[in-house]
Amino acid sequence: MPPKRGAAMIAEPVLPPIGLEVLHGFGSHAGRAEFRDAVAFADVEGQFIAQPVGRQMAFRHLAGTEVSFAVESSSVQAVSATAVSQDRSLLAVCQLTSSAPSSQVSVYELGPLAGKDPVQTLEELGGSVGRLVAAAFSASKPGAGSSDDPNGLLCLSSAGLTAQIIVLDWKQNELIGRAEIARVMDRVAFNPLDGFQISVSCSSSMELWLLKEFPAPAAAGAEVLQEDRLESMELAKMPEVAGLREFAATFTDHAWLLPACGQIVACSEEGTCYVLSNGRDAFAAPEGAEELQLEAEPYVLCSIDNPFGVPLTGSAPRCIRCFPRGFIVAGTGSALAVWQLQDREETEETELDEDYGVSPVYVHEQTLAVTSGAGSTISSFDLVEYQAENKYRRDLVVAFENSSITHFSLSEVEAAKDKAMPETPLVCGGFHAGPITGLDMAVQRPILVSACSKDCTVRVWDYQVGSCEVCWHAPEEPMGVALHPFGFFLALGFSDKVRLMHILAKELVPVSELPVKNARSLRFSHGGHLLAIIQSKLVHVFSSRTLKKVAQLKGQAKEVASISFDPEDKVLVTMGEDGRMLEFSTKSWLQVNNEGEQPRGESLAVAAGPDGRAWAGVCHGDGNALRAFRHCNVLENEDIPLPPRMQLSAMSLHKTGKDKEALVSVIAGDCTGALRVFSGLTTMLRSADIGLHSDACTAVCVSSDARTVATAGADGSIFVINVEGVATDPRPSGKGSMEVVMINRGDIQQRQDEIAELSTQTSSLKTQIEEDAARLQSETRARVEEARRKDQERVQSLRLKYESLQQASTAKERENLRQMKSMEAMHIQAADEKERVYDKQMRMDAASYVAVEDELKELESRLTQHRDRAKQILEDRQQMQMQELRRQTSEKDAEIMKVKSLIKFTQQRFDAMLDQEGMEQDMEIAQLKQKNDEELEQQHLVEYKLKKDQDSLLRGLDMMEKDRERIANEQRESSLIMNNLKHECETMQREVKKLKDERKEREATLRDKEVEIGTHKLKVQTLKKFKHVLDYRLREVTESLIPKEEMISQLHAQLEALEAEFERQLEMQKTMEQVLAKKTEQVAEVTTEVKKQKEELKQREKTIFRYTTDLDALATTNSDSRNWHIGLKKIWQDHVDVDKLVADQEGSLPLRELGRQVKVMERKARILDLNGSKNEDTSKADIISKTQENSLLIHELDELRVEKKALERQLTMLELRVRQSEQRRAEEEQAALALGHGGGSAQLMDLGGPKKPPSREFLPAEVPDAVKDFFEEAPRANPSAMKGQAKKTVQRTNKSAFHKNAEEREHIQKLMKAAEQNNDKMKLQRIEQKLLQDQLNSLRAKKKSVAPGPLAPAPGRPASAGGTPLSSGLETPASAQPPLAAGGGLSAVRAAVQAAPTPTSTQPGSPL
């Protein structure tokens, strides 16, 4: 129906029609529980498969990527069932239609004559039949008895208001039989041996039906009823299967055993398989005994309790298929079991030939789990058996409940019984198992990305090749997917977040996450720089470059149904479920042009176009329509009405051409699963549609050139369609290839390592091959020489043997010649005897011959008499017949005369009538001549006019002649083409005829084989008598094996638990061994370090002992202190190694600990520095000013003290001079006593108390100045401890000052002056320390300290107060050192002195 367009539409040039062709279809019906045969082989060699995808029927080539689709009617809505004939030549597809009748059956040819169009479509199925759930072809037409029409009947099972079984002659479209049943049967099958018999089954029943002629009518009313019937035969139900009700089985599938023997194998959900007999003996039945056969009762022959064997005991069978002399059952856990009929021995057949009723014996051949199914249940499978390369192959195609399909050769699997089943290929890499929630297409690469919430998978498809490249199993259900236009980046929406992922060669790698929950739909902009995410009533927009949120769009009253960017990415359009449209600018993210009309109807999809235009699928009260908008304003005059119940659920827009001449097209999918194309929405509208999905279409994507469209549906299928007539731009030269992919560097390195390893192996193998070749050549030469030598020896022996045999043969020939002569004499004698006997016999035969000749002459005379008598009888009869003939001839002559007289009368009457009619005709002719003259005059006038017209017609005729010649040329060319085609057709017909002849020959051979098989079956049926006995014994054996099997299963479980425990303990042991190895290595390292430290400790103790000894010797032996510096330098050179000290300082553990503490203190100092940074400036200024004032005051105080001390010194000198002469001797004694008291108090350490450094004031005068300078730092190192001691010493000195001589008093004054100077220096040093503390952090940060690190103290010895090495105080005398630089050296010397052993006794006044 042409759509209504606006009045402003202008005429456009005629464009070609839109063409839609299905390229690929990804999906299957294997996941549907109500669909039985999701896949089947389409040829006898297993090269093609047929499978429904959506509402389409796909034919795939397993060896390549070729796929074709059947041409379906536009009214087809879904595929409900399929069936393939036994010879793989026909395919029946049961379909649901949108128009009446609601169901139809399309029959397609398979094999060499296969085509996309059906050869027959059955619509009239005898009334309303409802949904067709099962179908089956017959193996031979009932009553035909020949193989000319083996697939003539088609049996259907319906699930309407009343379940029915229908049998049709599909070629004639004739109803053969029909019956109403109580339950819906999901599996039907014909008996391959008897086309009158049909088996049907469902979960609760297993039934057999029989076609037979209607009974003869007994009354007239019955004839009327018989004429009203549509079916030609009666479909009658056979009795129930005897013994089957007691099992209470839930049947899942059944099939007829091959070769045809009248037996059925059925599988149940409880895990048991039953072998049934139909109760009809086709070979022993007499003619016309159909009524007796109808009363035959089917029965159970045997049962198989565990068809999958011990490895897969818990698996339940779901489907079953038969092959010659066996069957295959498949079920849960991807399990397959093969059972083979066991051959009987000839001895058993002879013994049991007279018995009857023995059941067949099937042997379990193999059980395997198909690894490609990943543990999923096998919903259906198909198998073919054919001969290739002089051996039989058995190929299987298997469909799983997760919608995956795989194929493999069972012969190859059976050849490797001891090995695990290899990974089998999946068709197209696998399919989705449920509704597809998201689909998107890349612009720069030929890939699709789809997401399914049921199986939680995300798949990447290469739609040029037609396969799945990557399958990623998501941790939760994906709600939506969006693919970047470049094709290397995608976004997935989940319930809690949005994940951004890279597409690698064989996997998806997460990159980042966005905190958006319940992201139902995602979409990248056309440029790929923006990502829009729908969350209920909101739309979040993120930047693809920074992954930051750009905007959050609001304004919809209900949830957002769809979003769309315009082709230039200037506008983002959102459509709510209530049909309200909002338009947002991508620059400011503000609403623009949102003053449109109120929402009308519901909407599920929207597509934004150029110039502010947009289109949406709207459902309102009047119906469905494709509605046009311009800046959110409804353009009702441009609405395109759609059929009812066909609301648009997904759409995409494509623009081609320049702005003014742009061609805008909308490709949309509706709720019924059809794809609709609307091209030229702003100019001349063209439309096309194609049915794809059996459920609603959920997503539609269009390529950049508008020549490829991809759709996804709620039925779990994906279609790729080639579109012609939409794009006006030239086809691009090429598109991004799948050859360019992203891959991890680790994978590249792994592949490179593998290549290198393989290259190494190849080179080693080549070397080995060369070595083997050389070795084999040498061995071959040796063997050839040995063989030649042996041959020569054998030839020599054979020559000797030949000579001996020749001599023996000569002797034997002579003996034979003698025997022949004797035998000839005997033969001649015997011949003479035989001749005498023969002559005697001939004489006897001659006598009997004469008697026989006499008897023959007598018989000939009798025969002559009988012949004469018979001739007489014949002559009499001939005369009688002649008389009768004359009588009849006279009667016929009389009748002929009567007829002649009647003819003469009739002729006279007819002549009179002719004369009268002739006169009337003459009058009419005269009148006609007059009228003709008048008309002739008028015709002359018309002729003049026609001549004028003729000239114009001749000119047109010339033009037409030219056209005719052109058309003739074209017809000539077409005729040549037709002749070529006819020639090809004739060639193909000849080939078809040859194939039919071959087929007939094969069928004849098959019939002969079936006859032979029937004879063998007669022998097999004689063994059925032992059935009950064997069943009873088998039951007993089975019951006795049940406890053992339970025990075995328990032992297996215990063994698995023990193995798991053993593996766990083994892992723990390995972990502990690794830890133990690490600990052992650490212990070895620590032990080595301890040994090294012990050796170093011993070496250091020796060094310290030698150093102490040398120092003690220097102090005790050398009394002249002025020469001590020479000894100290020698001690330094002998005992101090600067490099070793620095190395020990850097590597020793105490120094590392000290360094760690220094770092801690530095960190604390930095914290204090940060806390005191606010008052730093003011404090520094105050300290500097006060320091300057204090310096001035101290300077003045020093001057005053100098003057005071000078005066005091003068006064003391005067007093001493007055008393010098009077108290010289007393002062000498007091000086000696004072000297002894000072030496006893100046010891460095006591044996029982702590060590205290002596002050310089308390040292006697005999102590050298170098030693006094060593202790100059002592008050500065510990001023608080030495303050009291200094005061006491001064007091004691003052008390005894008046008892000393002038030199001692002068010396004491010098000491006091030095003490006061030291006190002043201490005060200055405290002030300097405060200033230096402020600069400590900066000095340490810049690392400008030039002093070496602290020395490690010796064991048992305290560390020095300073941090400089010993060399700083020992290289020069202490008097030459500045006050601040001498501290480190004095502390080191003091530590060495304190560590020296204390003398046992000290004499008063002895030197240190």
**Terminal Cα span:** 131 Å
The count of β-strands is: 54
Tally of contiguous helical segments: 18
- In what range is the share of β-strand residues? 15-25%
Helical content, roughly? 40-55%
| Mean pLDDT score | 78
What Rg do the Cα atoms give? Answer: 61 Å
The coarse overall form would be extended
Largest beta sheet, briefly?
Answer: 4 strands, antiparallel
Classification by helices and strands: alpha+beta
Strand order within the widest beta sheet: 1-54-53-52
Q: Detail the poorly predicted runs.
A: 1-12, 282-294, 346-356, 1237-1264, 1266-1299, 1344-1408
Question: What is this structure's SSE topology?
Answer:
Layout: E1 19-26, E2 40-41, E3 48-53, E4 56-61, E5 67-69, E6 76-84, E7 90-97, E8 103-109, E9 120-122, E10 132-137, E11 153-159, E12 163-169, E13 174-180, E14 187-190, E15 197-202, E16 205-212, H1 220-228, E17 234-237, E18 251-256, E19 263-268, E20 273-277, H2 290-294, E21 299-304, E22 317-323, E23 326-331, E24 335-341, H3 346-351, E25 362-369, E26 378-388, E27 391-400, E28 405-409, H4 410-415, E29 436-441, E30 447-452, E31 457-462, E32 467-473, E33 480-483, E34 489-493, E35 498-503, E36 508-514, E37 521-524, E38 530-535, E39 538-543, E40 549-553, E41 560-565, E42 571-576, E43 581-585, E44 602-608, E45 613-620, E46 623-630, E47 633-642, E48 648-656, E49 663-670, E50 674-679, E51 686-691, E52 697-702, E53 708-713, E54 718-724, H5 745-1021, H6 1027-1117, H7 1124-1135, H8 1138-1147, H9 1149-1171, H10 1176-1220, H11 1224-1241, H12 1265-1270, H13 1274-1277, H14 1279-1295, H15 1302-1334, H16 1336-1342, H17 1367-1370, H18 1383-1395
Antiparallel strand pairs: 1-54, 2-3, 3-4, 4-5, 6-7, 7-8, 8-9, 10-11, 11-12, 12-13, 14-15, 15-16, 16-17, 18-19, 19-20, 20-21, 22-23, 23-24, 24-25, 26-27, 27-28, 29-30, 30-31, 31-32, 33-34, 34-35, 35-36, 37-38, 38-39, 39-40, 41-42, 42-43, 44-45, 45-46, 46-47, 48-49, 49-50, 50-51, 52-53, 53-54
Helix pairs in contact: 6-7, 10-15
